[in-house]
């Protein structure tokens, strides 16, 4: 679902939200967009934790979906509508557009001409590091601890957003001066 919402929300944000903000003289600069994206990623993980809580509060297996006798050998999950998780993917798609797309644009425009490819490669290295962290925490992804895993991710991402904002907010002012 995430790629679908990225494709849908990209033009909506680019052609709708950003021009609307500019028209109303709202300065939604690069560093602010990235920090907003990080906070939205945190919110998407918090929402996922809430959805997981709903799953664990619903039968037949409660906090052990697919493993209780009522699951009929793992074929019948808890009775929760799968579309309850849709907002997680929408929030995450918007967050990715605010953060990753903006990061690519920002680094490309700020890099010296002969360093643009290197800077973009370093950005991809960061994405690879994120994937490696995802693989590393995979052992934590099991019932009944999924609520805590999602909560931990939400808290960690929120802290990253705060630290990022503190360290880099000065670049919004520098960019305003350059224009």
Automatic annotation (TrEMBL):
Keywords: Membrane, Transmembrane, Transmembrane helix. It comes from Aspergillus oryzae. It is a multi-pass membrane protein. The chain crosses the membrane at residues 37-56, 89-109, 121-141, 147-168. The keyword Membrane applies. InterPro entries: MFS_trans_sf, POT_fam. SUPFAM superfamilies: MFS general substrate transporter. Pfam families: PTR2. This is Unnamed protein product.
